[in-house]
Amino acid sequence: MEHHPRRRLLLASGAVLLAMAAGACSAAGQGHGPRQAEAATGAEHNLTHSTGAASAGGLPSGHVHGVARNRADGLVYLATHDGLFQIREDAAPARIGPVIDLMGFTVAGPNHFYASGHPGPGVDLPNPVGLIQTTDGGRTWTPLSRQGQSDFHTLTSSPGGIVGFDGEQMAATSDGRTWRQLTSPAGAHAVAAAPDDTALLVTSPSGLSRSVDQGATWQQLPTPLLPQLVAFADTTTVVAVAPDGQVAVSDDSAATWKVRAGVGTRPYAVGAHRGEDGGLEILAVTGTGLVRSTDNASTFTPYGR
Fold first, then answer.
1. Phi/psi of residue 74, each to 5°?
2. HEC per residue, the chain
3. How far apart are CA 157 and CA 163, in angstroms?
4. How far apart are CA 18 and CA 189, in angstroms?
């Protein structure tokens, strides 16, 4: 599995809904080799630009599980129940690639994404899809492992590999195929990896926990709010969002926090990164749409305004 540590997008996917599938399979054990098949059967599923039906707030789907900015083209991407969508400020959302319910989603580098979830109609993938990968910005996806076995509701990636949680078990892989079980806090919800592999963060009903030994042990951290979603913007900057939309930012790897403005309502996905100018950008998806902050979470405004 190829990683690009110098070019990677310093962005963690905080994608997932609060309710996790109780019947999801364990992610431990050996992975299956890639299927020699296209990600979709039929040209209509491989269209680069295919606009989907818009929902509340101009979102392309009623269920958005992940948000990220792709360093290859500088655009925002949404991982949704109805596939991957490219978001432009001056155009309608455009579907990229096949219709896959992308439950877990993480960006590893320019045009390089990992995901999990369920295939849409006509898509030639097992259900669940296990761990899949794209290196062309979502136009095509390659199965890597756990096909027909695991639906990772949350994924995170770093140069050291990928960590996923399927609702029952947290697991890690360094090559995308062979998995090892990790311990995790009870009821783990969202997971985020530091881009320098120094820490993993997990949200759960008991709060925010951190591991500095690749998930072998966890320490609960004091926070001024109960985080639902969490994302690393760089090696030390962390963004956390509570179920009511309140946002907190840490500049020291989640050791201390400052409560900032809120996103207005319940969040469904959050992403954060440092721009070329060094500024912090936070993207959040709520039931009313996609919002953005570029002033260290002091204010959030609808994306594109």
1. 75, 10
2. CCCCCCCCCCCCCCCCCCCCCCCCCCCCEECCCCCCCCCCCCHHHHCCCECCCCCHHHCCCCCEEEEEECCCCCCEEEEECCEEEEECCCCCCEEECCCEEEEEEEEEECCEEEEEEEECCCCCCCCCCCEEEECCCCCCCEEEECCCCCCCCEEEEECCEEEEECCCCEEEECCCCEEEEECCCCCCCEEEECCCCCCEEEEECCEEEEECCCCCCCEEECCCCCCCEEEECCCCCEEEECCCCEEEEECCCCCCCEEEEECCCCEEEEEEEECCCCCEEEEEEECCEEEEECCCCCCCEECCC
3. 6
4. 7
> d(Cα 216, Cα 273) in Å, to the nearest integer?
27
Q: What angle do CA 64, 201, 19 make, to 5 degrees?
A: 40
What's the token pair of residue 242? 């509570």
Task: Answer yes or no: is pLDDT of 213 > 80.
Answer: yes
Task: Residue 280: name the closest of 264, 263, 298 by CA.
Answer: 298
Q: How far apart are CA 63 and CA 240, in angstroms?
A: 20
Question: What's the rounded Cα separation, in Å, for the pair 10 and 14?
Answer: 13
Count of CB atoms within 10 A of residue 111's CB?
Answer: 17
Residue 164, exposed/middle/buried by CB under 10 A (0-12, 13-18, 19+)? buried
CB neighbours (10 Å) of residue 23? Answer: 9
How far is the C-alpha of 81 from the C-alpha of 92, rounded, in Å?
17
Amino acid at 46: N
- Output the pLDDT for position 304: 82
How far is 127 from 129, CA to CA, in rounded Å? 5
pLDDT band at residue 57 using 50, 70 and 90 as cut-offs:
low
For the record, the structure tokens of 245 come out as 């939309």
* pLDDT tens-place string over residues 248-263: 999 999 999 999 999 9
Enter the tokens of residue 204.
């759960």
Name residue, tokens 């320019």.
110
